[in-house]
Target: Zinc finger DksA/TraR C4-type domain-containing protein
Amino acid sequence: MPLSKERLDNFKNKLEKEKASLEAELKELNPDKLPDFGSDVDHFDEEADEAEELTTNVSIANAIKERLGDIDSSLRKIGLGTYGNCEECGKEIDMDVLEASPESRLCKNCKHGQKSI
Model:
């Protein structure tokens, strides 16, 4: 059964709020700004900490960017009228899956199939 306009609007609002939150988090991380490792070779521990922080921030930023991509895809699907359909098998994604993760692209069966690969 296709999603009602009310449910679609609800999911759209959730997705837009999550997108704004993730964009703010990404901006705060600022993964494109390299730390000043400096030329002081007597503080290797400090430079190692900075390198570790950069690596962590880049990893977190990549995960956020991937999630933003899924959210953008879901928002496009709402506009196209295809939101809530599994990208793999085409069946409707269960409401409990969408409630838990509105940017879900796959139904439970297809998600489960991907994990076993």
Summary: The CA atoms of residues 19 and 68 lie 6 Å apart. The chain has one domain: 5-30+42-115. The radius of gyration is 19 Å.
